[in-house]
UniProtKB/TrEMBL annotation:
<protein>
    <recommendedName>
        <fullName>RING-type E3 ubiquitin transferase</fullName>
        <ecNumber>2.3.2.27</ecNumber>
    </recommendedName>
</protein>
<keyword id="KW-0472">Membrane</keyword>
<keyword id="KW-0479">Metal-binding</keyword>
<dbReference type="Pfam" id="PF04757">
    <property type="entry name" value="Pex2_Pex12"/>
</dbReference>
<keyword id="KW-0812">Transmembrane</keyword>
<dbReference type="Pfam" id="PF13920">
    <property type="entry name" value="zf-C3HC4_3"/>
</dbReference>
<keyword id="KW-0576">Peroxisome</keyword>
<dbReference type="InterPro" id="IPR001841">
    <property type="entry name" value="Znf_RING"/>
</dbReference>
<keyword id="KW-0863">Zinc-finger</keyword>
<comment type="pathway">
    <text>Protein modification; protein ubiquitination.</text>
</comment>
<dbReference type="GO" id="GO:0005778">
    <property type="term" value="C:peroxisomal membrane"/>
</dbReference>
<dbReference type="InterPro" id="IPR006845">
    <property type="entry name" value="Pex_N"/>
</dbReference>
<keyword id="KW-0833">Ubl conjugation pathway</keyword>
<dbReference type="GO" id="GO:0008270">
    <property type="term" value="F:zinc ion binding"/>
</dbReference>
<comment type="similarity">
    <text>Belongs to the pex2/pex10/pex12 family.</text>
</comment>
<feature type="domain" description="RING-type">
    <location>
        <begin position="224"/>
        <end position="262"/>
    </location>
</feature>
<keyword id="KW-0808">Transferase</keyword>
Amino acid sequence: MQVYPAGVTNIIQSIQRDDLFIEELQEYLTTTAKCLGQKNYNRLRKYLPHLTSAWYYSLTSLSNLLTLGEEYAGIIRFGSDNSIPSKYLHLLWLVLYVGGEPLFERITKKLEEHISNSTEIRNEAKSEITRILRFFRTNKDLFVRFHYSLFYIQGKYHSISNRISGIKYVLLRQWMQDNAATSSIKFLGYISLIYVMYSLIKNYIYQESTKENIVYSSELSKVCVLCVERRTNTCATLCGHLFCWHCIHDSLKYQQSCPVCREPVNPSRIVFLQNYT
């Protein structure tokens, strides 16, 4: 079967189309969950985005069907062996795509606990491994942005779950390939990559220069995860995360969800902490 590499624009169009439909499904689920009572809704609401995505992709990708976005952009999924991915590979992709972030948090925390309780590892090694694990967990958003920078440059794997599973996108019809904005997106990718690398190096040097982990954690709690600078005009989302006022509003222009926990966020519900230092 003759296939052609999907352009970055084709993939972005597909993902945006799917996200719009998933948001619509989530609104229906939210309305249904509210009918169960406020107490039950409060328990369920943080799981609704994951449940909606899992439901949508189970009915499409996991059943070897095109998503609405893929059909709109004219792309299909291919595995690393240049064939249609198996159901098991799609299942791996779905687990990582929906639950990859909480899974990463849980694994790193469990590793920290195991290392700190181990009697076979020297204290110096414990301290070093724990420091590295905390660095990765604290800067996970920057590593995600690092991946997206590579996607903008290479145009191959849209999400980290795609990269791990080896699932990429291809076109069946070459005339549908959209390369109009490829050079601009690639330039954006290089700029983003430079910024992310600078932020990671700066955070690593800052961590290295800190003698006390408690002091490090205290100072890091004052840093905005979006601009990686000390927060100014601190505000809070309803899910309890703190950002610079202008940073969170800029982020919500592209996706109305919390950058940390992916909880849906309404810009009008952002709380400005007037006397917070």
